[in-house]
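hi!! sorry for the late reply, been swamped w classes. u asked for the two structures so here they r. pasted raw, havent cleaned anything up. first the sequence of the first protein and right below it the tokens
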Amino acid sequence: MGETTLDYDAEAERYDATRGGVPRAEAAAGAVSRLVPPGARTLLDLACGTGLVTERLVSPGLRVFGADAAAGMARKAAERVPGGIVLADARALPLADGSFDVVSAVWLLHLVPFSDAIVAEAARVLRPGGVFVATVDKDAAHDVGSDIDRALAPYRSHARASDRGDRIAATAASHGLAPAGATRFTGHGQGTTPRRTAENLRRGYYASWFDGSPGTTDALVAALADLPDQDRPRADPVYRLVSFRRPVTGG
């Protein structure tokens, strides 16, 4: 990742308002729920953030828990899912093997160069027959073919994305997880504007693909400032969600 990274403790108070709020969270939770197998009793939501998606995963018969490495985010999530949130790094969960029927990772794997370790931990805490559900190709989903995307193109490479679908599938397979399903959902409120994109570049929002060097940032911000309709949102992204099952073994 680049030198500029987002401080998620500092972002906790404004995170929901800047990420599509309830409509986006409901779309994400609905998509995850479509991939939850019948009879699942427990779900762990990795990098649960403020818990806006996590609380919407709760359903009759399904106990939902969340984990986040940022204390500010975990505190917000605990208000929404009382007693169900743990402060934890997704690479080293303080949880026993085979603890959950479902592990979800929404908008996580694109952020980290160590996505392999997260998939390994998800596989470890899954019960036999359980599923790991994750968004993949997130940055690619944000490329909707707009004028903003054309300005970003020289600086953005989806090939090196840590959540690239084929890479996650291969990693899941290496930990004994087999493909189980897929779905898509709209990232409501995530259609960006030139002005907002420039502001986000300055804030370090795109560390998964942008190196954040001052000279490059200045050049890109200038290019974005030349675009028309500075405050008109372009199309919302459509995210892809995939699931992988831990096989049931034994006679």
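now the second protein. again sequence first, tokens right under
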Amino acid sequence: MTEPVDDFPARAIILSAGQGRRLLPLTENTPKCLLPVAGKPVIAWQIDALLANGIKEIVIVSGFQIGKVEALIAKRYHDYSNIRILFNPFYEVADNLASCWIARDEMRAGFLLLNGDTLLGDHLLPGLLHEQEAPITLCVDFKTEFDDDDMKVQLDAQGRVKQVSKKLSAGETDAESIGLIRFSKEGARLFREAVEQALREPEKLGSWYLAIISALAGQGMVNSHSVAGSRWCEIDFIQDLQKAESHFAFKETESADQPRPDQWLRMPG
């Protein structure tokens, strides 16, 4: 393994507070992060990938059915005192910017921010973790067409992020965010302060944290990191879960706890 760059992010924050209503009825009593993919909960795929890539501390922001999340972590990761859970009591009335506010005190050094429904292959993270440091690095992928649900990204000629929004026009859209961001120590400070300031305005309670990233991009603080060719998966709808299940399925002789790199799927759109 190559040596990590300076300010290697020792911590990851996973935003898993929501119910995942678009996956009903599967999420009626089970949070999205606990849905199984090939016999393994979504959040376990995430944690295992992070641990395998040298992330030593993991903070999970949970809300809906938090007791079930706590039980899973206590059972599966009982030897890992560095995996902790924070409670977001606003999960029913707020979007993920509120979860970032809950975790703001964890943002004192370089860290990764990961959406609770994004699965990563082990081979995706090293390129992000060992590249040249930037204040904020947004992971993006590319495709020929984008739909209304994609978090669209506009880039400049040098690959810096200009803006991030689901509402970008086709002419403005160059890529999509995959739900993974790296922050340096300075980027963490900028983001934390912006989150604290934003939630002084009550109308921002329902905002996405990527609105903050877009605003910081306008100040030249955000670079992009292409994961083109890497395998990743975002689970929003039942169809996504069905596709992930079919592509993550193992032979019966293999353990669901030991995923092979070739079993990851990059889910289109």
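hope this helps!! also noticed smth abt the second:
Residues 11-253 form a domain with the Spore Coat Polysaccharide Biosynthesis Protein SpsA; Chain A fold (CATH 3.90.550.10).
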